[in-house]
Amino acid sequence: MIEAKLRKLQKRRSEFLLEAVEELHDFVHTARDDAVQYLERYKAILAQFLQDEDLKRFHEQILEEFQKYLHRNLQKVVTLFEALNDRPRKLWVAVRRLEEPEREYRTILRVGKYSKDREVHSLDIPESTGLPQYLRQQYERNRGIVILGPNRSAATWMSTQNDALGEDRSVLIGPIMIKSGNPLTASEKRELYMILYVNSPEENAFSTGDEYYMRCCTDVLSLFFSMASKMMEETGFGLVSQKNA
User: Fold this and answer.
1) What superfamily does domain 2-233 belong to in CATH?
2) DSSP strand pairing (104-112 vs 125-126)
3) Prediction pTM value
């Protein structure tokens, strides 16, 4: 009887993993195809900018298009981790983006089932404190993915009123990096452009195995935004910097 139950559990777990792998492939496939589409839109917006030289409007349009790209792919991230953790309609994701000139990370998107009160009480996080600083340190140590439970220190989490909602007792966190390099000097510049959160109201919802899937998601998104940043630098400013806008 016990062996039969174990075999049934193992089979069910294998089905979860197979479904998760299929969802991961779907995420990568969609992200690739969307990247081609949205970078083509970038070229059209750039062509218009070259005619009217309205830099502020150009920057606003570009961020709007890239946010559409991100929203579509975050929906895939939700589906992926729901399949992996067998927790339909309980997971939700969020993204914080580095904003200038404040140099703070601001939540720009949420996807999934969450309380709308979060939008009212959300606070920006300075880049030099808490999670952004900790995440960069972990990234430099090749430990880019972070898992947090309900007990968090100030070194990894800035407490806000939203914590009382109990929607993120478990959080899987990964960096979306912008990378640029100089082939002549073989140097590389890295900037933490966004922070991706996968949240669960349940404790101990994530494990080490989830980190590999998260790393794949952040690597794909980092590739897209690194390409976008490189293209925008050709107009005289980068994806992050809005000082000239």
Assistant:
1) GAF domain (3.30.450.40)
2) antiparallel
3) 0.83
